[in-house]
Specification:
Blueprint: H1 15-29, H2 35-42, H3 46-52, H4 61-70, H5 75-86, H6 118-133, E1 140-145, H7 152-162, E2 171-175, H8 187-197, H9 209-220, E3 226-230, H10 235-238, E4 249-254, H11 259-265, E5 268-271, H12 277-288, H13 291-294, H14 296-305, H15 310-322, H16 328-337, H17 350-363, H18 368-377, E6 385-386, H19 387-394, H20 398-410, E7 415-418, E8 421-423, H21 426-438, H22 441-466, H23 474-495, H24 501-517, H25 521-537, H26 541-557, H27 561-578, H28 581-597, H29 601-617, H30 621-637, H31 641-658, H32 661-677, H33 681-698, H34 701-717, H35 721-738, H36 741-757, H37 761-778, H38 781-798, H39 801-817, H40 821-838, H41 841-858
Parallel strand pairs: 1-4, 1-5, 2-3, 3-4
Antiparallel strand pairs: 6-8, 7-8
Length: about 850
């Protein structure tokens, strides 16, 4: 344990020192507000703020940005300082991710006036005590089942708050919306939400369900955490969310009995019944006060009219409080007279009929405008809604909207789940949707159009701010808005597909960069698939080719090269038929990018050269720069390094004029690779460092991972093997979590080489074999060839000369088939050394001479070794 009063480790002179000096100066200029005051302003804990000011660890940018904004500082200037402090030269490049796990406290608020349920609370307490006392080796799961509105969530939340201190590693909550007819939470979405609660950045969340579930289990292993999974429809919604080791306690609420959860996962079922007559009256007493005792008989009648359902009782109690001059007898009689309409929420049983009656009765005491607004909320496709979106939906200004949401919240028809964000019980959501269906079509459609316009325009502004050419102060705010609204934006895109396809298409275009750089590849596939469908339905060739182009990029990110190529070839066909030279150039650029990844370098050169010519013809400088860049990559892989350098430098100059930060980062990264091959390690490190700063500033995880791999290989060449291992490990984490399979394979290959240099040959061989397999699966000829050669070297060292020979020869065949001169030389060099050991002296001499000649032709570092 650290002792108070001991000096903190000093921060050496450099960018980190400058960052902290400026931060402390800003704090002084702001009048030295206390850390507790700042924590309140920023919206985080005192401990978090204290840690941000505690040297030498550089705080994460999101937190630092909020602190600087609170102190009225220049966020753009601090962003530049932060980037410099995050990468401060080759000896101080960060190599490991900061711990991603936090102790979340995401339970919904405890219910005011909670009464009764003593038996159920006692049972839950006993389950918890037994799990601890018996040293349980299993996750404890309790399933609370009962009809809608009966108080399952209230009970679960109330109990969770009572025992929260017994779960120091966090209490997580997730509404699975299992009974939402349109948007129940899918397992992949649920896993992402839980991982985010645990502090995992969106870009660090794996693409596949299995990988997300594995990460969740890993993060919860050995932890004392409570998971409250609310409104589950079936065990399929829950199965992948369950921790894998003891110490965690899971509470699942559902209208269904979930027999499979009991049978397969050992859950203990608690069936929640209606409140007893005494409990129902006690709840009224807690909410209304002594009027209940003065009119006990009528209080009981009022509770019975509400079918003793807590949700209905609370709504009725709010009306009683708002009308203190009306007796409970009159309120009960008024409720009795309320027309009972057809129940579409359930099977028409007494409980559902009663709760619908209460809903209708409650609305009669609101203004017409508030009732209209409540109905329009039934048109919102997302789980929650912000104040600005609600204003668009209602067609009112923010002040009027706030008055409306306040009125609806007071009536318990909606709830404020976060500052300025509102949600509602699923029964109320269904009821609002029914009311919306009764509105005139013109009113309903106008509200949806305003809502869709709001989301599209705000998303466009946020994306523009988030991915500008320089780090402005609004970038962090814009990305946070996109992160918060991502679920709603995707839901709107799906909801608009038939009535307003231009919104679906517009959102797909606007969100493309955000979803790509954030690693949200599955979301990108979904929304671009919708955009492609709408484009084809309306015969819009331009929109179809744009959607196909975006899908091609996503498929490429996921290593699905045949699918990517299919998309791009279709775009080329459409553009060719339309005589669109600019469109053809873009398609050829993408096709060439897939071909060089598949090792088809001659075809890639042809198509990329055509793309370059067409981009120049139509005056597309951005496309021209990208074509130059990609041609540089092909020339590099062919070992034509002078031509590669020339094309990279031309691309870099063009991108500088255009202000294309991402393009410049890519060009610097690839320049560094050629310099690495040529043995120019210091200048390579400098280019990699600049590229890393840019990619991190842009939030481009794929780019960051690529640079980290290249830094790892550079350190391996310099004999700094521990640093090489750390950089490849970090790159591996990024590519695994984003689902970028090509980068994943490169990281495995680099890690295998680096740990092999440290003498960990078994571990090295395991990494390299995985790289070979992954390279084969996705068709990445280059990484497969390199990993085969490296595996041959390890096998040779381990004495398995037969398998080593097979690996070298397989690599040589691949390298010759793709005209990869550098890897041909490496494979021949490995064979020469193996031949020498096995006494095959003639073959050794021939292979060594050919390898030396090729290395000398290339001018690479190996030529002098």
């Amino acid at each position: 344990m650290a002792l108070a009063g001991l000096p903190k480790p000093p921060v050496p002179d450099g960018p980190a020192r400058a960052l902290f000096d400026e931060l402390h100066l800003l704090h002084h200029q702001a009048g030295w507000p206390s850390l507790r005051e700042m924590a309140k302003e920023v919206g985080c804990s005192h401990t978090t703020i204290s840690a941000a000011f505690s040297e030498p660890r550089v705080p994460r940018w999101g937190l630092l940005e909020l602190i600087v904004e609170t102190l009225d500082g220049d966020t753009a200037a601090f962003h530049r300082l932060w980037l410099a402090a995050s990468v401060i030269g080759e000896d101080a490049l960060p190599t490991r991710a900061a711990p991603i796990v936090t102790a979340p406290r995401s339970l919904p608020a405890d219910v005011v006036g909670f009464v009764g349920r003593d038996a159920e609370v006692t049972t839950l307490d006993r389950l918890l005590d037994d799990s601890v006392g018996a040293g349980s080796t299993a996750v404890v799961i309790s399933a609370l089942s009962g009809t809608a509105g009966i108080g399952k969530t209230a009970l679960a939340a109330h109990w969770a708050h009572r025992v929260a201190e017994r779960f120091p590693d966090g209490q997580l909550y997730l509404n699975l919306r299992g009974y939402d007819p349109d948007h129940p939470v899918q397992p992949a979405e649920a896993l992402e939400a839980l991982l985010r609660q645990l502090g995992v950045a969106g870009t660090a969340i794996p693409a596949g369900i299995a990988d997300r579930a594995a990460l969740l289990r890993t993060l919860l292993a050995g932890k004392r955490a409570l998971l409250l999974l609310d409104n589950a429809h079936s065990v399929a919604q829950v199965r992948d969310l369950l921790p894998g080791s003891p110490g965690c306690f899971v509470v699942v609420t559902s209208r269904d009995a979930l027999p499979a959860l009991v049978a397969r996962h050992g859950a203990v079922r608690l069936t929640i019944d209606l409140l007893s007559p005494d409990e129902a009256v006690n709840l009224l007493r807690r909410l209304i006060g002594q009027r209940v005792d003065a009119e006990s008989e009528h209080a009981q009648a009022l509770a019975d009219r509400c079918a003793r359902l807590p949700l209905a009782i609370r709504i009725a109690a709010e009306l009683a409080v708002a009308r203190p001059y009306v007796s409970l007898a009159d309120l009960s009689a008024e409720l009795e007279r309320e027309p009972r309409r057809l129940d579409l929420l359930g099977a028409g049983d007494d409980e559902h009929t009663a709760i619908r009656t209460v809903f209708s009765w409650s609305l009669r005491h609101l203004t017409e405008a508030d009732v209209h607004a409540f109905a329009l909320l039934g048109e919102h496709p997302g789980e929650d809604i912000g104040l600005a979106a609600a204003a668009a939906l209602f067609g009112t200004d923010l002040d009027a909207t706030r008055r409306t949401t306040d009125a609806l919240a007071r009536a318990h028809l909606i709830e404020e789940r976060d500052l300025g964000r509102y949600g509602m019980h699923d029964l109320l959501r269904a009821y609002a949707a029914e009311l919306a269906a009764e509105l005139p079509a013109t009113e309903r459609n106008a509200g949806r159009t305003r809502l869709f316009d709001h989301y599209l325009e705000t998303a466009r502004e946020a994306a523009s701010a988030a991915y500008g050419t320089s780090p402005e102060s609004g970038q962090g705010l814009a990305r946070r808005w996109l992160d918060t609204e991502r679920g709603n934006l995707l839901a709107v895109a799906a909801a608009a597909i038939h009535e307003s396809p231009e919104h679906t298409d517009g959102l797909a275009v606007v969100l493309s960069r955000y979803l790509d750089t954030g690693g949200h590849y599955q979301d990108a596939l979904a929304i671009d698939g919708l955009a492609l469908r709408t484009a084809r339905d309306r015969g819009d060739n331009a929109a179809e080719t744009a959607a196909l182009g975006r899908l091609g990029v996503v498929h490429r990110r996921l290593g699905a090269y045949p699918e990517a190529l299919d998309c791009l070839l279709r775009t080329l066909e459409i553009h060719g038929a339309n005589g669109d030279r600019g469109g053809q150039a873009h398609a050829l650029l993408g096709i060439g990018g897939i071909e060089w990844r598949l090792g088809r370098y001659a075809e890639a050169l042809t198509h990329l050269s055509e793309a370059l010519t067409m981009h120049r013809e139509v005056g597309d400088r951005v496309g021209e720069a990208r074509a130059l860049h990609n041609l540089g990559i092909v020339y590099r892989r062919l070992g034509r390094y002078d031509e590669a350098l020339r094309h990279y430098e031309l691309a870099l100059a063009a991108q500088g004029v255009l202000g294309d930060v991402a393009g410049q980062a890519g060009a610097r990264n690839n320049l560094g690779i050629v310099q690495l091959r040529l043995g120019l390690y210091p200048v390579a490190l400098a280019n990699f460092g600049e590229a890393l700063v840019s990619y991190r500033g842009l939030g481009d995880r794929a780019g960051e991972g690529a640079v980290l791999n290249n830094l790892g290989e550079t350190y391996e060449r310099m004999g700094r093997y521990d640093q090489a291992v750390e950089h490849h490990q970090r790159a591996l984490e990024i590519h695994q979590t984003t689902g970028y399979r090509a980068g994943h394979a490169v990281a495995l290959r680099g890690l295998g080489v680096a740990v092999g240099r440290l003498g960990r040959r078994g571990e090295a061989l395991a990494h390299l074999e995985r790289a070979i397999t992954l390279g084969s699966e996705i068709g990445e000829a280059d990484v497969k060839t390199r990993a085969l050669i490296d595996a041959g070297e390890i096998l040779h060292e381990l004495g398995d000369t037969t398998t080593a020979d097979n690996r070298y020869r397989a690599a040589l065949d691949l390298a010759e088939g793709t005209d990869n001169t550098y890897e041909q030389a490496r494979a021949l060099d490995g064979l020469a050394r193996l031949d020498q050991q096995l006494g095959r002296l003639a073959e050794a001499k021939s292979h060594a001479a050919t390898a030396r000649k090729l290395f000398q032709q290339l001018g690479v570092a190996e030529a002098t070794q």
